[in-house]
Amino acid sequence: MKPTTNHKSEEHAKTSDLGSLAGEADESAQLVSAPVDQTRIARAVREILLAVGEDPDREGLLETPARVARMYAELFSGLHEDPRAHLRKFFVEQYDEVVLVRDISFNSMCEHHMLPFMGVAHIGYVPNGRVIGLSKLARVVEVVARRPQVQERMTETIAKLLVEELEAKGVAVVIEATHTCMTIRGIRKPGSLCVTSAMKGIFRSNLSSRSEVMNLIYGGRQ
Ligand SMILES: [Zn+2]
């Protein structure tokens, strides 16, 4: 798997401190170069229908393999996008307090069961001269979510991307999600919520900074 660079904007690449980042490329942030093969998915879905004892040629199922293939192409589109592209359009601003975007909704696909998990991400960071448009944070969540995922890695990946691309003084990512593999099968615990967090920089090293950002995330809530 080689990362492709077709989506990458080079404009700020030269100014970033590539030396310190080069050795720490996050595998999960890398791109898969082949596009989603919808014909192959459709074939596989037909196989699954046969395997569970269905008749894939009955009227209601005729279009299903192709429909599922289009859906997977959408749900896994993040494999073919570079989330860094959204973080390279930062602007330079002297602001060194916490920037927080709360309740960024997402849906992703659990890689263990190929079942969706959905919820919200909260992202806080303390800039170090590089400030990013707020919608870009949502874009990053979107790209990372649209891959086969586990919530823990998704949380870590987003935090690392911000550390690396913005060189932020601190990054806090908290994700809360419901996993359908927990609610509709197996242990069947509807309403259960999985919370993961990744704290970097001052949010890791400084307890009062961490409390501040956690208060901003949970403060206004009942
Ligand atoms: Zn699962």
Report Rg.
20 Å
Q: Give helix % range.
A: 25-40%
Assign the CATH topology of the largest domain: GTP Cyclohydrolase I, domain 2
Mean pLDDT: 86
Biggest sheet statistics: 5 strands, mixed
Query: Which percent range describes the beta-strand content?
Result: 15-25%
Give the CATH H-level superfamily of the largest domain: GTP cyclohydrolase I, C-terminal domain/NADPH-dependent 7-cyano-7-deazaguanine reductase, N-terminal domain
Topology:
Elements: H1 18-21, H2 38-51, H3 64-75, H4 84-87, E1 91-92, E2 99-110, E3 115-126, E4 130-131, H5 134-145, E5 148-149, H6 151-166, E6 170-179, H7 180-183, E7 194-201, H8 202-205, H9 207-218
Parallel strand pairs: 2-5
Antiparallel strand pairs: 1-4, 2-3, 3-6, 6-7
How would you describe the overall organization of this protein?
The protein is an alpha+beta fold. It folds into two domains: 1-6 and 31-80, GTP cyclohydrolase I, N-terminal domain (GTP Cyclohydrolase I, Chain A, domain 1), CATH 1.10.286; 90-218, GTP cyclohydrolase I, C-terminal domain/NADPH-dependent 7-cyano-7-deazaguanine reductase, N-terminal domain (GTP Cyclohydrolase I, domain 2), CATH 3.30.1130.10. The chain is built from nine helices and seven strands; from the N terminus they run H-H-H-H-E-E-E-E-H-E-H-E-H-E-H-H. The chain has helices spanning 18-21, 38-51, 64-75, 84-87, 134-145, 151-166, 180-183, 202-205, 207-218; strands spanning 91-92, 99-110, 115-126, 130-131, 148-149, 170-179, 194-201. The strands form two sheets. A five-stranded mixed β-sheet has the order 5-2-3-6-7, sandwiched between helices. Strands 1-4 form a two-stranded antiparallel ribbon. Strand 2 (99-110) and strand 3 (115-126) form a beta hairpin. It is elongated and about 60 Å long. The model is unreliable at 1-29 (pLDDT under 50). Zinc ion is lined by residues 110, 112-113, 115, 179, 181. Residues 110, 112-113, 115, 179, 181 line the site of zinc ion.
